[in-house]
Amino acid sequence: MSADAETAPETGAASRFDGLLNSERTSRAVALLGVLVLTWSYVSVLFYVTDVVGGRSRLIAVVVGSLLLATVVGSFVGLRTAVAVTGALLAGGFAVYVLALPQSQLQLLTPDRLLSDTVALLTGLSILRLTGAGVWAMAVAPGPVFLSWYLAVRRRYVGAVAVGGVALGLFVLTGDAGQVATLVGVTGGAVTVAAATLDRYGAGVAQLDVLTMVLAAMIVLSATVSVVPGAGAAPLLPNRGSPTVEGSLVDAQDRLNVVGSIRLSPQVRFTVDSPEPSYWQTAAYDRYTGDGWVRTGNANPYEGQLRGPPGASRTVQQQVTAEGSLSIVPAAWKPVGLQGPAAENAEVTTQGNLRPTVSLRPGESYRVTSEVPLHTTEQLRRSGTDYPDEIEERYLQLPDSTSDRVRERAAQVAGGEDNPYDKAAAVEEYLESEKRYSLSVPEPSGDIADSFLFEMDAGYCTYYATTMVAMLRAQDVPARLVTGYTTGQQVAEDEYVVRGLDAHAWVQVYFEDVGWVRFDPTPGGPRETAENARLAEARQNGQTGVDVESSEETATPTPTPTPTAETSDGGADGNSTPADSSAVAPGVVTTPGDGSIPGVGATTTADGGGSPIPDLPPRRTFLVGLVAAVGLVAGARRAGLTARAYRALWLRYGGGGQTPDDDAVRAYRRLEYLLEREHRPRRTGETPRTYLRSLSRVGLDDEAVRVGEAYERARYGDGVSRAEADEAVAVVDRLVRESTPVVGRLFR
């Protein structure tokens, strides 16, 4: 055997490993893997959509079928044909989507509406807001999946990345691709292009450690550093402390996220002149995502009188005056008319709420006319369940992630009732009595309703309302989450002062011939205690903006009076209805009227005091840490640290072989590596025996020479005994221990 073959095994393994990395086959495999990662990044958005609206298994089948089709035809179908197939897939999918829309939506599909909807999608309209979001997801999935994978199979990697990048870019524009999905997609595309480029120029993917280091640094920096103070895009790592919530609860435009601990704000938002108290509604949300809410459909310009509830109602006029900048139109349900500055640029959502496109300035006011539904408890109990198709489709939806135990608990609580009203009353009473009201709760993870029912002891309005809607929908009772404000502080016979601490979330349940009826499962007593303490604290500290003229005369906010069920002629039948019996308001945080954001970090608890809430790192933080670790490993490999670490471990812990001969050979190779490091390497053409004899002249241990002799017998002679092999291993182990602290210990 030649001397060159007698190298240490770790050197040969490293060479073989580098050769494998530099091979054409490996480069192609890495490029294909990058395309798959990029494909996953945008398909994951569609998976999330179909998980919310249903049909995820069908989407999986569509994606897998597209990948298989591209794999099969990639070897014999030309590029033009593949592009034509992609166009056919997109056109066919769009046709299926259009045919799946309700008749009421089809009538709106004018060319102008199609253009405006397309522009809306490209400027932030979430896919989840589409009426047929699940069908749309399956319609757009096969085209880009097929074409990008077809190009990858044909080794046109840059084209594959371009197609996948366009698909991912669309979902970035709609706001549905989160930072993690976007970063993963960019990483996959960059790896693909790099692997293809390195292979083209013969560098091999062994040089990908440089790219890995750069990408890891980009991801970690983008996740942890905010370049522009107060920028709208939040970093991946969560901001510790209690967030402000009124902006996301009341001012939320189309999507409402459920957060953790919150703070109460005593800032006055608006005043209301009204002949009777009410909850001042601002928005309703129909699509439950499991971790929040989405308001589907586009808003239409307000053009005058709106439809009232389907049954009897009474007219209530309200005058609302903004005390700060106001970007909402609070009103008693159901608003049918609007006059004043807000009417000039108002929109009407598909859920029946009004909202302005231009904020009201402080001091501006508007008049809103509401038709408040009239009903009795018995009328609600007699209400049927033959709901309109639109109501069933939109307000019985639950995400596929809804657990069986949520459905089982809903059946335990309300399954014994024989009508929607008693089911709603049972769920409302159950949540009021079983859960504590608290503003200090951990940031939720997973399905909100499931977490609140089985993992949490306490929560605030958003948790109560979300859970009640989920439980009712599990019982086939149409329900939705509503946001707005409770009555506020009554300062005169017909005047109410509404503050940020009155912001609230509650539930509306649909009844035939009546429409939407309010239920509120949040306990009222603890809420009032928190409100009173917070307002008293603000007044004591001399905080500005917490009172208007005459509001200081009332020491605490006036609780919402308990309504009674009303007959169709406006009288009361004397029976309290649980549907309207909860006088609660939330503990929700606001932003002040001047648009500034209160200090983030202090958590105001129900007693008005501040106490930080421990917050464990979420999954996104773990992912960023994992990316950083990968980058560090790549850097260590580039610097040779991993190879040196491996060799050091191999030298110190050589391990055992299956036979004495294997142990003797391994012992010599460790010895040779040690001698190379401590003295000199074996020269080309120099045999192991010559090498050891040359070192023995300068004081090499005789036992080390005997290790070489055992090696020769093991490789070229009759072999060695177990005792001889063990002796060789023991000698090398001793020499390694002696040489590690101080160079030169090997020699006498």
What features would you describe in this structure?
The protein is α+β, with helices and mostly antiparallel strands. Helix content is 47%, strand content 11%. The chain has 26 helices and 18 strands. Strands 8-11-7-2-16-15 form a 6-stranded antiparallel sheet. The protein has a 4-stranded antiparallel sheet with strand order 3-14-17-18, with helices on one face. It starts with 8 loop residues before the first helix and ends in a 9-residue tail after the last helix. It comes from Halogeometricum salsisoli.
The chain-level mean pLDDT equals 79
Q: Which blocks of ≥5 consecutive residues have pLDDT under 50?
A: 1-21, 226-241, 561-617, 741-748
What kind of sheet is the major sheet? Answer: 6 strands, antiparallel
Radius of gyration based on Cα positions: 35 Å
How many H/I helices? Answer: 26
* Helix share bin: 40-55%
- Counting helices, strands and paired strands, the structural category is alpha+beta
How far is it from the N-terminal to the C-terminal residue, by CA? 32 Å
Strand order of the largest sheet: 8-11-7-2-16-15
Range of strand content: 5-15%
- Overall number of strands: 18
Task: Specify the overall morphology.
Answer: elongated
InterPro entries: Bact_TGase-like, Papain-like_cys_pep_sf, TgpA-like_C, Transglutaminase-like
Keywords: Membrane, Transmembrane, Transmembrane helix
Pfam families: DUF4129, Transglut_core
Organism: Halogeometricum salsisoli
